[in-house]
Amino acid sequence: MFTMLMILLLTFFISCLVMIISTILSKKTIMDREKNSPYECGFDPKSSARLPFSLRFFLIAVIFLIFDVEITLLLPIASTLNLTNIFSWFFTSITFLLILLMGLYYEWFQGALNWS
């Protein structure tokens, strides 16, 4: 019990020492207006909130969310292989991947049209 208490106190002392040293040696002495203000999607928070919003930024954000969520849907496909019928698993997986590839192709095609 005494050994555990000593290890706990030593760990606490070392962590406090590291935090104090990092605070002393840090270079955050200059307070900048831009660094202290919150970042709001590229808008200046000190100006009017009624500025027009970029539709392209919105579409990229939505696409990111869609493809971020699809990763959570793709990961369980491999683990369900042993639990289901192989035909059902294969058909579902291929259908899901084809839908994702069609969405990716559509976005790539729309992006190519908008850039030109």
UniProtKB/TrEMBL annotation:
Residue intervals passing through the bilayer: 53-75, 87-106
A Pfam family assignment: Oxidored_q4
Catalytic activity: a ubiquinone + NADH + 5 H(+)(in) = a ubiquinol + NAD(+) + 4 H(+)(out)
Compartments, record wording: Membrane; Mitochondrion membrane
Entry's Gene Ontology cellular component terms: mitochondrial membrane; NADH dehydrogenase complex
Broad EC category: translocase
Record keywords, A-Z: Electron transport, Membrane, Mitochondrion, NAD, Respiratory chain, Translocase, Transmembrane, Transmembrane helix, Transport, Ubiquinone
EC assignment: 7.1.1.2
Mode of membrane association: Multi-pass membrane protein
Superkingdom of source: Eukaryota
GO MF terms held by the record: NADH dehydrogenase (ubiquinone) activity
Cited InterPro entries: NADH_UbQ/plastoQ_OxRdtase_su3, NDAH_ubi_oxred_su3_sf
Family from the record: Belongs to the complex I subunit 3 family.
Record function comment: Core subunit of the mitochondrial membrane respiratory chain NADH dehydrogenase (Complex I) which catalyzes electron transfer from NADH through the respiratory chain, using ubiquinone as an electron acceptor. Essential for the catalytic activity of complex I.
PANTHER family for the chain: NADH-UBIQUINONE OXIDOREDUCTASE CHAIN 3 (PTHR11058)
Protein name as annotated: NADH-ubiquinone oxidoreductase chain 3
Species name: Nanosesarma minutum
